[in-house]
Write a structure and sequence with these properties.
Layout lengths: L1 H23 L6 H11 L2 H7 L4 H4 L11 H17 L5 H12 L2 H22 L5 H9 L3
Helix pairs in contact: 1-2, 2-5, 5-6, 5-7, 6-7, 7-8
Length: about 140
């Protein structure tokens, strides 16, 4: 099983590298690559990582290292943006708009929401169940 996990992880991470490379070379990008570029642009430290070479593809990021996994962080940004764009769970787009207005910054609103999404995913994984959308949305509403 670890072989497949590593292959999937490397493939996903390569997508981030490829999107950023296309951006730097002013080449056309796919819609998902454009979303990646927009997230990376908000995190200059991740741009440096994506320009650092292939070692970053295989690096493990663990809580014990005291560092955030940049690929997980970017992926959670993308997930929040997808949830907001599709309004799933229903009501998340309104929460996002309200939180962004309250905080005065869409990026900070996403960061607050990312914490709740991460917790919902962690709890679901530990329970071996899909995430509880109602509980997740309620946790987001408490941010308001």
């Amino acid at each position: 099983m670890p072989f497949f996990h590593d292959q999937g992880r490397s493939s996903l991470r390569r997508m981030y590298f490829e999107a950023w490379r296309k951006h730097r070379e002013s080449r056309p990008v796919e819609p998902v690559e454009d979303q990646i570029i927009r997230v990376v642009a908000l995190h200059p430290e991740y741009a440096q990582l994506l320009e650092s070479g292939p070692a970053a593809l295989e690096r493990d990021y663990t809580p014990e290292d005291g560092q955030t996994n940049p690929f997980l962080h970017m992926g959670l940004h993308l997930a929040i943006r997808e949830q907001v764009a599709t309004d799933r769970p229903a009501g998340i787009a309104l929460v996002h708009r309200s939180l962004a207005a309250r905080l005065g910054d869409v990026h900070e609103a996403e960061h607050a929401m990312i914490e709740r999404l991460g917790a919902a995913l962690w709890n679901a994984q530990r329970a071996g169940l899909p995430p509880d959308e109602a509980q997740y949305l309620e946790s987001l509403r408490r941010l308001l």
